[in-house]
Amino acid sequence: MTRVFSGIQPSGVPTLGNYLGAIRNWVPMQDTHESIFCVVDLHAITVWQDPKELARQTREMAAALIACGLDPKRCTLFIQSHVHAHTRLAWIFNCVARMGWLNRMTQFKDKAGKDREAAGTGLYVYPNLMAADILTYHATLVPVGDDQRQHLELANDIAEKFNHDYGVDFFPRIEPMIQGVAARVMSLRDGTKKMSKSDPSDQSRINLTDNHDTIALKIRRAKTDPEPLPDHMSGLEARPEARNLVGILAAITGTMPENVLREHGGKGFGSFKETLVEALVAHLTPISTEMTRLLDDPGALDAQLRLGADRAEAIASPICAKAEEIVGFLPRR
Ligand code: AQP
């Protein structure tokens, strides 16, 4: 059975972008693939996180994943820092990856901002850790949003260079799995920027914990343009905000954007936005209710995460140890 790995940072409340671009696609994979899902706290600290908040958000993210349909009995769900193979292999990959490769990563450029000299080195080597996350499980399929495509190409470059340098055929090739009409959900305030949990503006995103009133307010305030919705997809070109909202409604109602336009084409955004609010509330309310229930019993949640870490460790540790042996590290006897 193909082994799947994916992760999500506990850098805030999961957004509709995380949900539609990634988490929602993970749920059916539990029945068709050997699935490993991880809350990547090591990645989160590549930008500053308040320690108390990080711990709270890590549990909250785990609860969100379970509330969205990940079942710790049918998949391996754990916290990244609980399994040390990730950092051990990441160090080796820091030595394999080339500066030139990392210099091309657009996420680093976006997150580091203008003052690159002040960016943390962890942010720079983030893709090496991501490669280690996947390859320490010999996972070959990685369901992610479109924004992660470049990092996965880099992971393949690292795997190939490791195999070549050490004359082995050890790390497999990774296939990205980028799915659905909402593989990249954009900000509600700027249709050219992706929706992000760490965007300073809460108005730019829908959080999975937002209630009816908050969703309604954010969607009503979402940036649009004065034109009515077009009848055809071609009419959405050069209208990033309109295209984004149409994509969200299509994704959340399980249809294609063409069908949304068939129904709403020619109408203004007022009635369209009301339909979108109702669809979002109907979809997200059961998730936030279940999150609250899970977070009411942190002991039970932590016990599930512990079992997940034990299962993950049993797969990751021997693969990482083999990589260390290939590199020439003397085993501890
Ligand atoms: N806007 C998005 N549309 C579609 N997919 C998205 N993903 C993130 N944003 C969107 C996908 O969510 C998964 C988990 O992402 P992550 O938390 O590991 O990191 P990220 O991509 O950096 O997500 P954020 O929300 O933007 O986090 P911050 O603000 O902390 O950087 C990934 O599969 C990603 O593709």
UniProtKB/TrEMBL annotation:
InterPro entries the UniProt entry points to: aa-tRNA-synth_I_CS, aa-tRNA-synth_Ic, Rossmann-like_a/b/a_fold, Trp-tRNA-ligase, Trp-tRNA-ligase_bac-type, Trp-tRNA_synthetase
The catalysed reaction is: tRNA(Trp) + L-tryptophan + ATP = L-tryptophyl-tRNA(Trp) + AMP + diphosphate + H(+)
Record flagged with keyword Metal-binding = no
Q: Where in the cell is it found?
A: Cytoplasm
**Major location, coarse class?**
cytoplasm
GO cellular component terms attached to this protein's record: cytosol
Alphabetically sorted, this entry's keywords are: Aminoacyl-tRNA synthetase, ATP-binding, Cytoplasm, Ligase, Nucleotide-binding, Protein biosynthesis
Q: Which residues bind ATP?
A: 9-11, 17-18, 145-147, 185, 194-198
Query: In its keyword annotation, does this UniProt entry include Plastid?
Result: no
- EC supergroup of this enzyme: ligase
Annotated GO molecular function terms are: ATP binding; tryptophan-tRNA ligase activity
Q: Where does L-tryptophan bind?
A: 133
In which residues does the motif 'HIGH' region occur? Answer: 10-18
Pfam short name (any one): tRNA-synt_1b
Q: What is its EC number?
A: 6.1.1.2
The record's note on quaternary structure and interaction partners says: Homodimer.
Family under the similarity heading: Belongs to the class-I aminoacyl-tRNA synthetase family.
PANTHER family membership: TRYPTOPHAN--TRNA LIGASE, MITOCHONDRIAL
- What does this protein do, in the record's words? Catalyzes the attachment of tryptophan to tRNA(Trp).
Protein name, entry field: Tryptophan--tRNA ligase
Q: Which gene name does the record give? A: trpS
